[in-house]
């Protein structure tokens, strides 16, 4: 037990690693995750629109892209992009692997976000698309102004959950050899643990990850409950009216039954 506490909960070492984790690692992790999410949203929306279209030459490439990047391990994609595009990245960004890490995580997240967008779009009733076309709107105009905005409102919790996954996957970018000022939470925790021959800095890095993900998870659940409660107030009032109508109809039926029984006894 003492060996476990000394190796994982060395409080002076744990507390001493917090400044670097919070000032450098937390900032870089959030920047990496936010920009990767933005890339994933843009690419994912394009892929989702291609996947729900009725044109085969649009559907097939989108499905292949989604299947490939959902099926490959995240570490392999990061290595393929970081090493395969290294000459291009060197000519554009210089000796800075941070943009390639954003591209790699963005491609990974875009495959999952595309499926999230597709499910949101397909959850909207097909009758609305028919109504838009009856009003003279084109297919893409209907998708842009009517279908997609409704689908996005329904998938906001799923997008937030995907952001949490990107925050955790950002720990894999250490494969690309980030600069000292670009180290993320996991890289700082790992380097400090190796130098100190103790795993307490990695425990501190995990605590900072929890500081990001746990409040965000509870916020997502709260927003989801609030959205489900207040999204369709008309539907709720209509349901109450239906219940009252059913109750009054049941009372009338019981009254008629009792009256017929009384007449039979007379």
From TrEMBL:
Bilayer-spanning residue ranges: 30-52, 64-86, 98-117
Alphabetized Gene3D superfamilies for the sequence: MetI-like
Functional note: Part of the binding-protein-dependent transport system for glutamine; probably responsible for the translocation of the substrate across the membrane.
SUPFAM superfamilies: MetI-like
GO terms of molecular function: transmembrane transporter activity
Keywords of this entry: Amino-acid transport, Cell membrane, Membrane, Transmembrane, Transmembrane helix, Transport
Lineage: Bacteria, Pseudomonadati, Pseudomonadota, Betaproteobacteria, Burkholderiales
PROSITE patterns associated with the record: ABC_TM1 (PS50928)
Name of the protein: Polar amino acid transport system permease protein
Membrane association type: Multi-pass membrane protein
Places the protein is found: Cell inner membrane; Cell membrane
Region (Disordered) location: 232-266
């Amino acid at each position: 037990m003492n060996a476990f506490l000394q190796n994982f909960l060395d409080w002076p070492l744990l507390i001493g690693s917090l400044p670097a984790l919070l000032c450098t690692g937390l900032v870089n992790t959030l920047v990496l995750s936010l920009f990767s999410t933005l890339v994933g949203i843009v690419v994912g929306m394009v892929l989702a629109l291609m996947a729900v279209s009725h044109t085969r030459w649009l559907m097939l490439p989108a499905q292949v892209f989604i299947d490939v990047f959902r099926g490959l391990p995240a570490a392999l994609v990061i290595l393929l992009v970081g090493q395969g595009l290294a000459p291009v990245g060197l000519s554009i960004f210089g000796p800075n692997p941070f943009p390639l890490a954003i591209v790699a995580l963005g491609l990974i997240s875009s495959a999952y976000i595309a499926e999230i967008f597709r499910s949101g779009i397909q959850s909207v009733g097909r009758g609305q698309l028919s109504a838009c076309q009856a009003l003279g709107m084109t297919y893409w105009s209907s998708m842009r102004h009517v279908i997609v905005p409704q689908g996005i409102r329904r998938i906001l919790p799923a997008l937030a959950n995907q952001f949490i996954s990107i925050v955790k996957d950002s720990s894999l970018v250490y494969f690309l050899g980030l600069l000292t000022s670009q180290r993320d939470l996991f890289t700082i925790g790992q380097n400090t643990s190796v130098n100190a021959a103790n795993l307490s800095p990695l425990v501190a890095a995990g605590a900072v990850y929890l500081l990001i993900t746990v409040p965000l998870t509870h916020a997502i659940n709260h927003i989801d409950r609030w959205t489900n409660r207040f999204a369709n107030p008309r539907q709720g009032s209509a349901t109450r009216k239906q219940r009252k109508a059913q109750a009054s109809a049941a009372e009338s039926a019981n009254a008629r039954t009792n009256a017929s029984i009384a007449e039979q006894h007379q």
